[in-house]
């Protein structure tokens, strides 16, 4: 009796062996698929977390920029006003190029008169542009004592406008005349910056 029971169990086991192996294989397949799915979900989650952090940093940056936008607008307006004031006070300019040149001549003549330098001739030379700066040019021929010429140089140097000598030539009038000298010079004045 015991052997028939054992034989029945063995036959059932061999019949169910295939089914059992298929069941175990199916369970293992499900476990592998679930583990791979969990891993893929975790990696996707990490990627999404990193993207969210990046977007949060960008959002914070743009929020700060927008928050400080009024301050930047105010600073830009102040800089523009400073630039306009600088151009008005330090540059030799006017509504037209011809008026700018006339103004430059008047400034030089006033400085010469204040220094007791006799300006005999002035000639406006073509404008010169160097590194996005435009300069007016003026050639002058003068006659004066050496002290007056020195005072004229100092007056040009101390003038609030951007004026300077480009070329200077001082000659004696004659061997007998030691008191007076000829001054031939080219002066330049900043009149504008390109892009302003």
Q: Would you give an account of this structure?
A:
It is a single chain. This protein has 196 residues and is α+β, with helices and mostly antiparallel strands. The chain has two domains: 1-67; 87-193, Alpha-Beta Plaits. It contains four helices and four strands, in the order αααββαββ. The protein has a four-stranded antiparallel beta sheet. A hairpin with a 2-residue loop joins β1 (118-130) and β2. The longest helix is centred in the first third of the chain and has 66 residues, at 2-67.
Secondary structure layout plus pairing:
Layout (H helix, E strand, L loop, with lengths): L1 H66 L1 H22 L6 H18 L3 E13 L2 E13 H13 L4 E10 L7 E14 L3
Antiparallel strand pairs: 1-2, 2-4, 3-4
Helix pairs in contact: 3-4
Descriptive key words:
61% helix, 26% strand, 2 domains, 196 residues, Alpha-Beta Plaits, single chain, 4 strands, alpha+beta
CATH topology of the largest domain: Alpha-Beta Plaits
- Indicate the overall shape: rod-shaped
Structural class category: alpha+beta
CATH superfamily of the largest domain: Ribosomal protein S6/Translation elongation factor EF1B
* Strands side by side in the biggest sheet: 1-2-4-3
State the major sheet.
4 strands, antiparallel
| Helix proportion | 55-70%
Whole-angstrom Rg: 46 Å
Estimated share of beta-strand residues: 25-35%
Stretches with pLDDT under 50, minimum 5 residues: none
**Class of the largest domain in CATH?**
Alpha Beta
Please give the count of helices.
4
Number of domains in the coordinates? 2
**Strands, count:** 4
Could you give the distance between the termini? 114 Å
Strand and helix order: HHHEEHEE
The overall pLDDT, averaged over residues, is 85
Question: Which architecture of the largest domain would the CATH scheme give at its second level?
Answer: 2-Layer Sandwich
